[in-house]
Amino acid sequence: MTHPTDIPRDPGAVALPALHTALRLAEEGLPVLPLREGKGPMGNCRACRKNVCGGRPNMKTPGPCACPAPCHAWAAATTDLSILTSAAWAPAWRQAAAVAYHPGGAGFTVVDLDNGDAVGWARRNLPATRTVATTRGEHWIYLGTMASPNAVRPGVDIKSAMSYARWLGPGTGPMAPLPDTVRALAAREPAAVRPASRPVTAAAPVGGGECRHRSPVYLERGIAMAEQRITGAPDGIHRTVYRTFLAVLSAHGRCGCLTEAHIKRLFTAAQGKGESLRHCEDAWSNAAAALGM
After folding, report:
1. What is the H or E stretch that residue 165 is in?
2. By CB neighbour count within 10 A (0-12 exposed, 13-18 middle, 19+ buried), where does 284 fall?
3. What φ, ψ does residue 14 adopt, rounded to 5°?
4. Which residues is 239 bridged to in the sheet?
5. How far apart are CA 113 and CA 99, in angstroms?
6. pLDDT of residue 277 exceeding 50
7. pTM of the model
8. Which band of pLDDT confidence, cut at 50, 70 and 90, is reported for residue 228?
9. Which of 155, 149, 151, 147 is nearest to 192 (CA)?
10. Are the C-beta atoms of residues 125 and 181 closer than 8 Å to each other?
11. Those residues with Cβ within 8 angstroms of residue 186's Cβ, 6 or more apart along the chain or in another chain
């Protein structure tokens, strides 16, 4: 197996179908999985839906669960060519819009810098390493593994153990050892609570609207149904999240009973399906604006 620092450098990879790219990467030792449109993993199969099978992500190593389908997000990542080319995975590859890999399974950590400010911070504070350009920022890849907390600071996520990153090419520069400065980020107070404050403010107007809850059970049932709608979506997660947020705001957002805890539950469900915190925030703000809140 190729050492994780020897990431394949095929300049024509972007022109290949997702499966061909995945096979090439797997042959080089990179555990891979298909991503659907919207950069999220494939939804669990019917037998594993809602993790009734026990949930492969509860385990500490990548690989397929007992079913043959590419279930459980990052945990489906594999280098086994027979699994990647199996009939059970064929529907996923037909839907695949991109390829992802499990950094921790390959022995390294991706510092996901989501915007120019985050990139500037990294250049001032982190040792230089292999860099991959993304749509809005950069991935900085280090040799070594760690936990994978999100929003360790504004615009910065860490993807390593029990996580996945989109394959965007081999990048440039040598891969440096994972520094203590990156490991220390995981111990800081997460910045994820910061973006949640704006949607909560938009979702809890001064009040005056009719409260249809009548009892806490009505609101609780509505939030639980919204969570289930998001977690059970087999595809089109962007659309599902927006429409679910719109429905929640329409039913529960005008009387002031919706709390930050409710919003966090919905955001957590969406992020569990692969949505970024920024996408959640945008969907919530857009839904509030559509309702004139």
Report:
1. strand 165-166
2. buried
3. -65, -20
4. none
5. 19
6. yes
7. 0.62
8. confident
9. 151
10. yes
11. 146, 147, 149, 152, 158
Distances (CA, A) of 59 to 48, 56, 62: 15, 6, 8
The pLDDT score that the predictor gives to residue 193 is 35
User: What are the residues whose beta carbons fall under 8 Å from the beta carbon of 293, sequence distance 6 or more?
Assistant: 202, 203, 205, 249, 253, 254
Strand (E) or helix (H) holding 110 = strand 108-113
Q: Give per-residue pLDDT as tens, 34-84.
A: 998 878 888 888 878 766 776 665 555 566 667 788 888 888 999 999 999
Which is it for strands 138-143 and 108-113: parallel, antiparallel or unpaired? Answer: antiparallel
Q: How many other β-carbons are positioned within 10 Å of the β-carbon of residue 53?
A: 16
Give how far Cα 174 sits from Cα of 4, 20, 21, 89, 197, Å.
11, 26, 22, 34, 39
At which residue do the structure tokens 């969907």 appear?
A: 283
Decide: helix, strand or coil at residue 115.
coil
Rounded CA separation 293/291 (Å): 6
